Amino acid sequence: MKLAVVLVACLLAFAYANEEADVVKEFSEVNPEDFKYALELTNSIRAEQEGHLQDKDNWIVKGEYEYVSKDGKHIKVTYTADETGYHPNVQQ
């Protein structure tokens, strides 16, 4: 559960860092054994994440986020996270 909470907190901090953006889409569903989250802002930041409890102590989480960098490049990161760690795939 700690992993899921940390990842959601990181995404929220990332998404809300730009105070000039308005929320276009926001969704969250949190249950004892799974969760889903989605956020889209007017400044081209988008994030989605979902996870489920694999066994008593381990979560399987997958998600993606994307944004436009300060130099104008579109960045998209897809990832999984599990008992072996965080596994990102960055596309530019």
Highlighted features:
92 residues; alpha+beta; six-stranded antiparallel beta sheet; 1 helix; 6 strands; 54% strand
Molecular structure report:
By secondary structure, the chain is an alpha+beta fold. The protein has one helix at 2-16; strands at residues 23-30, 34-41, 46-53, 59-68, 74-82, 85-91. The chain has a six-stranded antiparallel beta sheet with strand order 1-2-3-4-5-6, covered by helices on one side.
SSE layout:
Layout (H helix, E strand, L loop, with lengths): L1 H15 L6 E8 L3 E8 L4 E8 L5 E10 L5 E9 L2 E7 L1
N- to C-terminal separation?
A: 30 Å
Shape: flat
Radius of gyration over all CA atoms, rounded = 14 Å
Overall average residue pLDDT:
84
Q: Residue share in helices?
A: 10-25%
Computed structural class: alpha+beta
Residues in β-strands, percent? over 45%
Low-confidence residue ranges: none
Record the strand order, biggest sheet. Answer: 1-2-3-4-5-6
Largest sheet: 6 strands, antiparallel
What is the H-and-E element order? HEEEEEE
Describe the structure in brief.
The chain is α+β, with helices and mostly antiparallel strands. The protein has 1 helix and 6 strands; from the N terminus they run αββββββ. A hairpin with a 3-residue loop joins β1 and β2.
